[in-house]
């Protein structure tokens, strides 16, 4: 390791605030992107599934109606 | 070759192939970024001039590479969409643009906090920094113009044209450090020459760059699949796909 201790790694020889801000923002953006991508995928699938179920039910109803009439 | 492109342009085929590729890309991105981060933050030696602030390079350079690559990808997709009317190219372009904008912002921010301890200033209106800021505005423009029309097709076309015109900014960014006197150092990494850094400094950088590209691939594949479901939800193959669990 390039540092003697974790405290030194955190301080980065007085450059800690700069280094950790840059890294924090970058890794934060990547993590947030993953969460948004997962959420988006889940929402779209849920909406689609709901719509197809509704359409399926409507189609079933219309064929039943035809049988009765 | 043409048959391959034709197949690639089919949303149904893309949906299937992307499903198989995406997990590998996500896994690869995670592995590379974790290894590159630990290596770059804790194990790479500090720079003899800049000390530890140089460790910002491991997020700054990959973000800046992606920022520019994604814009080139936007322009290329726009071209494919305008010339061959390949819908999947337009969907992918729409999905990758926000990541490009985010990476541009990250490149600017990480550069700014790197500039403070190194140059003594957060910001300077020099050629490299200004052309990167213009790239950010171009991304925002491309994303906004897509939604500015009542007909989605008009928005797609306008976004494609803006990307194709805006891509002229990419060579300006690349050569800005050579054409003008700037604070920004010239490229540390080129395809043709060995880097001037020692191996234990540039190897983690290479790992991070590859990790960011894998992330971009995974992000675009997964989001484009979602977009296919959003746009093609009434197609029969999508309905059949969802029939089992509907």
Explain what the structure shows:
The complex is a heterodimer of chains A (69) and B (246). Chain A has 69 residues and is mostly helical. Chain A is 86% helix and 0% strand. Chain A contains two helices and no strands. The longest helix of chain A has 53 residues, at 16-68. Chain A is rod-shaped. The model of chain A has no long low-confidence stretch (mean pLDDT 88). Chain B has 246 residues and is mostly helical. Chain B has one domain (16-243): Four Helix Bundle (Hemerythrin (Met), subunit A) (Up-down Bundle). Chain B has helices at residues 2-8, 11-43, 57-84, 87-119, 127-146, 152-166, 169-179, 199-231, 236-243. In chain B, helix 3 (57-84) runs parallel beside helix 8. Chain B is globular, with a radius of gyration of 20 Å. The model of chain B has no long low-confidence stretch (mean pLDDT 92). Chains A and B meet through helix 2 of A and helix 2, helix 3, helix 4, helix 8 and helix 9 of B.
């Amino acid at each position: 390791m390039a540092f003697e201790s974790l405290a030194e790694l955190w301080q980065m020889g007085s450059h800690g605030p700069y280094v950790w801000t840059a890294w924090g923002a970058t890794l934060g953006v990547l993590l947030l992107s993953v969460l948004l991508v997962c959420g988006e995928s889940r929402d779209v699938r849920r909406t689609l599934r709901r719509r197809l179920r509704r359409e399926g039910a409507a189609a079933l109803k219309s064929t039943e109606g035809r049988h009765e009439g | 070759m043409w048959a391959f492109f034709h197949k690639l342009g089919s949303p149904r085929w893309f949906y299937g192939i992307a499903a198989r590729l995406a997990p590998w890309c996500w896994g690869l991105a995670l592995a590379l970024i974790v290894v590159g981060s630990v290596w770059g933050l804790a194990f790479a030696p500090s720079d003899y001039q800049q000390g530890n602030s140089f460790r910002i390079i491991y997020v700054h350079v990959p973000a800046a590479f992606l920022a520019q690559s994604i814009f080139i990808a936007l322009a290329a997709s726009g071209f494919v969409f305008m010339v061959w009317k390949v819908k999947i190219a337009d969907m992918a372009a729409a999905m990758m643009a926000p990541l490009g904008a985010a990476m541009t912002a990250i490149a600017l921010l990480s550069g700014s906090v790197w500039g403070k301890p190194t140059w003594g200033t957060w910001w300077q209106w020099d050629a490299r920094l200004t052309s990167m800021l213009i790239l950010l505005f171009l991304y925002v423009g491309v994303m906004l113009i897509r939604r500015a029309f009542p007909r989605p097709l008009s928005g797609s076309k306008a976004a494609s044209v803006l990307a194709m015109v805006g891509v002229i900014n990419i060579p300006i960014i690349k050569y800005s450090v050579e054409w003008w006197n700037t604070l920004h150092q010239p490229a540390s990494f080129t395809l043709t020459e060995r880097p001037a850094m020692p191996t234990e400094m540039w190897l983690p950088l290479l790992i991070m760059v590859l990790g960011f590209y894998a992330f971009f691939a995974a992000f675009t594949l997964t989001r484009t699949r979602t977009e296919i479901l959003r746009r093609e939800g009434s197609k029969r193959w999508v309905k059949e796909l969802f029939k089992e669990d509907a």
